[in-house]
Protein: histidine kinase
Amino acid sequence: MATLAHELRNPLAPMRNVVDLLHLKNFADPQMLWARDVLDRQMTQMTHLVDGLLEVSRISEGKITLRREVLDLATALKYAAEACQPIVTAASHTLTVELPHQPIFINADPTRFSQIVQNLLNNAAKYTPNGGAIWLTVRREDEQAVISVRDNGIGIATEHLPSLFEIFTQLDAGLERSQGGLGIGLSLVRTLTELHGGSVSAHSAGAGLGSEIIVRFPLSNEPSATAISHVSDLPARNAARRRVLIVDDNEDAAESLAMLLQAEGYDALTASDGRTGIRIADEFSAEAIILDIGLPDMTGYEVAQAVRQSQPGKSALVIALTGWGQKQDKQDAELAGCDFHFTKPVDLERLLAILADGSVDPGA
Ligand SMILES: Nc1ncnc2c1ncn2[C@@H]1O[C@H](COP(=O)(O)OP(=O)(O)O)[C@@H](O)[C@H]1O
Ligand SMILES: [Mg+2]
Structure:
């Protein structure tokens, strides 16, 4: 599955670039705008599916490590609810969040915790006819934090409750509402929760009668001063031009990324193999080099090492761009002298931030 996800990411990368590029154009024709937005939404959906597959393969190989910290549930739930607000609003649902008066702390990986809650809220929004109601509540019960996501939607027939958390389970009743899901979400919820020492359960009085998914987490007894504040503060973009070289044998990917960067005021060139890349990096005194790893004549890591030997290459910002987002790839990239490692399709906002301010900590 990891290989499949990787292969799917390759065509996704140039498609994403082209869509981002279309966002920089002004269209007079409303139909063009609409077409662009359809592409954008569907691509985002496809990227989520691919990410989901990759997640599942990592989990099944036991490759997930939790980065736990003491989480203030009120804050963590508020962020997760905010992240889901767009789809809740789009379906005209009302989301009621009930937080406890006393703070509750758990010991959890903030990213994973957010993934759990967002999956549940997403499902509640999907499997509830428009204009429904969703409740996100948390309470303390003995030594556990009990988080409930409840809705007044299509419900779950009693006989299906036991298999609900199994991977690739999709119930007939919900199929037309599944919006291209794969039946991965709840299995991720269960695995991630259990990795934290917690448990999950599903409740419904039956078809048409709404559903409730309950997640239990062990409490952490140390309240903390470092309770999360996960705000992404990307550095401000500055107008400083940078000469950027993109080395990628997928010419659509290289060209589309170059066009995007040119549209943002960068001087961008492309090369489609390693040797040409090394030559151009030197001639062009590239200030930033974006490297695909699987190249026809050598690996991107070898290109990075070669570039590092030359004078202009020493101080260049080197960014590895691969379909693989595994830990090992990040380590390989670092060893080869890359400053950053990106997974395809590239997150343009983050790439621009890094190009504008190359001093950000690698891996930040
Ligand atoms: N809140 C809910 N109400 C009714 N059915 C649900 C709800 N959440 C999940 N389901 C059912 O459980 C199945 C599995 O959910 P999930 O693993 O998230 O997969 P997906 O949403 O991709 O189909 C869904 O396809 C749906 O049939
Ligand atoms: Mg789902």
Summary: The two ends are 27 Å apart (CA to CA). Residues 271 and 280 are 8 Å apart (CA to CA).
